[in-house]
Amino acid sequence: xxTVIDSPEIGSTAADAATPEFFTGSTTDFFSYEDLLTPEExxxxxxxxxxxxxxxxxxxxxxxxxxxxxxxxxxALTALNLVELCARGNNFLLHGFMTLELSRVDASISTFVGVxxxxxxxxxxxxxxxxxxxxxxxxxxxxxxxxxxxLTEPEHGSDVSRNMETTATRSGDSWTLNGVKRWIxxxxxxSNVLVWARDTADDQIxxxxxxxxxxxxxxxxxxxxxxxxxxxxxTITLENVVVAERDRLPGxxxxxxxxxxxxxxxxxxxxxxxxxxxxxxxxxxxxALDRQQFGKPIASFQLVQEKLVRMLENATTSLGTMVxxxxxxxxxxxxxxxxxxxxxxxxxxxxxxxxxxxSVLGGNxxxxxxxxxxxxxxxxxxxxxxxxxxxxxxxxxxAITGISAFQ
Length: 407
Ligand SMILES: Cc1cc2nc3c(=O)[nH]c(=O)nc-3n(C[C@H](O)[C@H](O)[C@H](O)COP(=O)(O)OP(=O)(O)OC[C@H]3O[C@@H](n4cnc5c(N)ncnc54)[C@H](O)[C@@H]3O)c2cc1C
Description:
Layout lengths: L11 H4 L9 H4 L10 H28 L7 H6 L2 H6 L4 H14 L1 H21 L2 H12 L5 E4 L9 H4 L3 E5 L2 E11 L7 E8 L5 E7 L5 E5 L12 E11 L10 H36 L1 E2 L2 E2 L4 H29 L5 H25 L11 H13 L4 H13 L6
Parallel strand pairs: 1-4, 2-4
Antiparallel strand pairs: 2-3, 3-7, 4-5, 6-7, 8-9
Bound molecules: flavin-adenine dinucleotide.
């Protein structure tokens, strides 16, 4: 990984700080996990990092404050081929490091890419027909058309698989969908939304590719979020929306199929939590070296050093976990409880890391002008989505005891 990032949001005093000689890239990737990539893969990560720094970092703070989406950066993301790497690729470690680097620059943009590629495009790639792949995948991979993933409902989040209210009723070669979905990332501008609905005939949950242009489809932006403000989450209402049978995903005949997708998406959220921890660490370390109190940089105080070391320990431990998870994915031996434990543990460490980082910045830690507040707030969304900490913990609890605490 790179050296600490020269963030414009950090403010002029920190940006002017001298970088000590020992302060090199290997300091951040403390155990040199990136060495597990081939030289070519490392080159790809370095290229992506440069693009994120050049095209993403300069615009995100303002968009975050305004809760708007930076459409202007999409071409730069397209050029990196991130969607294909996630949806059709099988290089899990490389994908993990890419996710880490993007999240390190901005968690909202990383969420936008993750939902589009890891949930929408991957679902079509893995559970769709050749016809669906032909009609939807190229546009998705090139980010010409954005996809969303609609599972959660206003009354059902953690228990949505058991109590989903959205229905799909078949009549000949078409289905009629009715229901409301909540929190749908990119839902305000996505061209197509993968909607999960309960088949009124067999009670099983099925997936449908729904065009946002269909009659009866409406999306309303969720306002006043304190996290991932760039992500345009929507409440989507489906009122007698008619979808063709050819747009039903045949590979998803029960929630078990959805769960397979969610296991992999839990993994990229785990990588996001690592990126966010390094973002917090980068920001706190720069600040601590620059900020003077009692006539010295605050980095010279033992209690501040302890915070910085704890943040680096948390981030490094989480990274080690995610590297092992990528190896399990690569060998096809990843189980849902592995992904659940990784996400639960990394997101708990993340929450501690961003709180420590925020305190290192003192009062400036609560102003989005200094970067840390955005990181601090975004961590809350990551802690909750793709299975909250509690639900992921209970998935592991079920695996080790044989008893499900959340039936
Ligand atoms: C920014 C953001 C983006 C999102 N994007 C999407 C998206 O694109 N598509 C989509 O479908 N969804 C999306 N979600 C929804 C997300 O997946 C849900 O928020 C999550 O599953 C939790 O559901 P809930 O918010 O309804 O909380 P609830 O399920 O109501 O849970 C509330 C609290 O109760 C706890 N809890 C629930 N059941 C138990 C139990 N049995 N034991 C112990 N504790 C329990 C939870 O852990 C949590 O702390 C997004 C959410 C956010 C915040």
